[in-house]
Amino acid sequence: MNSYKPDSKSDNENTAKSLYELFESVVNYRRLGLVIAALYFVILLIVSFTFHKVADYGVETDFFWLYVPAAKSFLSGHLLIDAFRGPFYPIVLGLFYLIVGDYFYAGMLIAIFSAALVIYLTFQLIKKIFSPAVAFFVTLLLAFNPVFVQHTYSAGTDMFFIFLSTASIYFFLKEKKLNYTNLIISALFAGLAYLTRYNGIFLLGFVPVILFINYWKVSRRERIISSLLFVALFVLTFTPWGIYCLSEKGSFFYNENYKNIAYELYGKNKIPWDKFWVEKSGEYSSLFDVIKQDPLKFAASTAANVPDHFLNDMNDLMGWYTGGFVILGIIFLLIRNPLSYWRTREFAYYLMNIFFFFILLLVFYSERFSLFLIPFYAVIAVQIFFSPQFLKMNKILKRTGYILLLIICIATLSKSISFNSSRINSGPEELLELGDWFKKNIGENRQGEKIAARKPHVAYYLGLEFYYMPLVDSYDELINILRKDHVDYLFFSNIEAANRRKIEKLLNPENTHPGLKVLYSFDNPPAVLYKIE
After folding, report:
1. Which terminus in the chain has less CB density within 10 A, N or C?
2. What is the DSSP letter of 54?
3. Sequential DSSP letters for 293-323
4. Cβ–Cβ under 8 Å, residues 343 and 323
5. pTM of the model
6. Nearest-CA neighbor of 172 among 352, 339, 340?
């Protein structure tokens, strides 16, 4: 009697086939994008509110310094004019505060909700333009990205701006044919993105997309009408704010972002940021002033930023395990010959992201500025494995490609966990203790009282008005300025001492400091709360 010997080769092929069929059924599930977004929302909501107790001293500084005061002003019936950003985020923050009852938690909730929407819209958009399989891997690379996760639990405009921009692109590229309803919605989201951060101006790049790429394949008359409609709605969205800026500041397009460009060109590595802002920034009144000081340097700096920003994106934003495939993907797209597919949604998608990349060349590099580009880079990396040329290869090579993509996704998730576990609770949690002590021993209602510090966090947690600690050369000068400006408290920690070495003895509460009374102090990290007498 012959014993049965299984055909191992046949079994392996059947197993591989079953796994591939399972993969196909998963990526083609109609509501997969919604499932991924919902899971992300729930997980990050729990993680954020469990571990992110206090804002960090990095990106979230602007939240307490700018957005919370602006939101409070909005709720009191007045809009503050920020020199670098529009008013839409503080308005939304104020509305969320009415629901949540705490500005910091409201800011986190906006970011988490926005991130989930970005994930959903990204999946749906990439699915429409490319394929469900490409959308699946791109969405995983987005959701697992360490920097994307970091700014999901960080309170600030980053994730909210990305949501508005992604929504604008989604509705614009949603259909293969011209749809005026989608065009109107896209223009309104573009206007709101601009009202959130002024680099949202890149969304006006849809106008050349309409006129010249014309993937809708409509007549010249319809292209002109569509372009004018998009621009008109974009401007209409911004107009009330522009009129308000004109009446208050004398400029319809008021903003001072050119001063950041000036610092990058003429101040960086020469003068501290604080000092430049106090002493030198007033020398520039427009972008033209910045350029005309040294046009060649401006042009050279912008050109040099192309490779610099891109390589930093590959290293700091994507990680080289993905970045290497991004470079291969770019080479592959060039080999494909862009002219062969330039009248398509795919080309329009690439072009809009390239517009955004070039807008960023004007400012210093930060990986958070490039967050919007994560899906774009991921598409370039992933699409190699789903191109017609790759799909024609034998089954083993195809399956190896899918396994490699899964490994990249797992590596990205692993790095994200490691990266964020050390950052999510990096904020000054000692301020929570100080806030509790202050409210119990000094009082909760100290309306109108000021506290001087380098960062605004302490003012928020003590319920005081923030006063930016001046740059001074002596202790006596500091006390005189604080008394003159009727400041009530002084908070001094390593943050304050870093750029004010001549008065760093204030870190020691045992020293004698005439005019100051020690109220509370910490040993690790060292910090002292003083009452100005």
Report:
1. N
2. S
3. H-HHHHHHHHHHHHHHHHHHIIIIII-HHHH
4. no
5. 0.90
6. 352
pLDDT tens by residue, 214-253: 999 999 999 999 999 999 999 999 999 999 999 998 888 8
Cα–Cα distance list, 11 to 15, 17, 25 (Å)? 6, 10, 21
List beta partners, residue 516.
Answer: 532
Give me the residue label for tokens 């991004």: 326
Which pLDDT belongs to residue 1?
Answer: 46
- Which run of H or E residues covers position 450? strand 450-453
| Bridge partner residues of 51 (DSSP) | none
User: What phi-psi label fits residue 390: left (phi over 0), alpha (psi between -120 and 50 degrees) or beta?
Assistant: alpha
What's the DSSP call for residue 526? E
Which residue reads 């692109």 in tokens?
169
Cite the DSSP H helix spans in 270-373.
273-279, 287-293, 295-312, 320-336, 345-360
Residues in the chain, how many?
533
Whole-number Cα distances in Å, 147 to 44, 66, 319, 406, 442: 14, 22, 10, 19, 39
Q: How far is it, in rounded angstroms, from Cα 174 to Cα 179?
A: 9
Torsion-angle region of residue 264: left (phi > 0), alpha (psi -120 to 50) or beta? Answer: alpha
Contacts 24+ apart (CB under 8 A), 176-184: 176/215, 176/216, 176/345, 177/216, 178/216, 178/218, 178/222, 178/226, 180/226, 180/229, 183/226, 183/229, 183/230, 184/229, 184/233
Mean pLDDT in the chain?
A: 89
Burial class of residue 91, CB neighbours in 10 A (0-12, 13-18, 19+): middle
Q: In this structure, are residues 302 and 360 in contact, taking their beta carbons and an 8 Å threshold?
A: no
Nearest to 372 by CA among 165, 193, 198, 205: 165
Domain ranges for the chain: 29-255+294-421, 430-532
